[in-house]
TrEMBL record:
InterPro entries to which the protein is assigned, alphabetical: DUF2878
The organism of origin for this protein: Pseudoalteromonas viridis
Membrane found in the keyword field: yes
Residue ranges crossing the lipid bilayer per the database entry: 16-41, 53-74, 80-99, 111-131, 137-156
Protein name per UniProt: DUF2878 domain-containing protein
Top-rank taxon, per record: Bacteria
UniProt entry keywords in alphabetical sequence: Membrane, Transmembrane, Transmembrane helix
Taxonomic path: Bacteria, Pseudomonadati, Pseudomonadota, Gammaproteobacteria, Alteromonadales
Amino acid sequence: MMSNFWLINLVIFQSVWWLSALFTHQALVGVIVLLALHFALSPSRKADLSSLMVLPVGLLVDQALAAAGVIQFAGNQPWLPVWLAFLWVHFTLTLNHSLSWLGRCHLGVQSLLGAVFGALSYIGGIKLGALDSALSVFNLFIVFGAVWAVVLPLVVHLNSRFVAKTGVQHV
C-alpha cells in the first residue's frame, strides 16, 4: 500500500485543475492520462470507483449554474464541456485521498471550507478564461459560496456512504 498516495493525489488534482483552467478542451488528453495514472497508483481502486457515484451531483450543479446564467461555457454551448466533467471526476477522487480528512470535520467546517475554496476555485477558473460570467467577483463569491457550502458537505457525506458499501477501509 502506498502510504503517501494522498500527496500524489493532491499533485494529480492540482495538475488537472491547472491544465483544465488554462487549456480547457486541449487539456483532455493530459487529464485522461492523469486519470489513468491515478488508478494505476491508487491503493484503493474499488473505493475510488465508488467515489465516482457522487459525480452526478457536480455535473448537475454546474449545469444548473449554467442554465441560471451564473456561468457560461466557451462559445455559449449549452451543455457542460467534457473537460469540466473530467475535472469533476478528478475532484471526486480526492475525497478518498488528499481530501479524506474532510470526513472527520464538523459539517459547519465543511460548509465554510466549501464556501470559501469552492468559490475561489471557480472565480480563479473564470479569471483564467476557462469559464465566463457576467456577474461581479463579489456576486460570484456569494453565489458560489452558497452553492459550495451545500455541495462540499453533500459530496463528502455521499462519498462516505458509497465507499462504506464497498467494504473498503477509507484511505
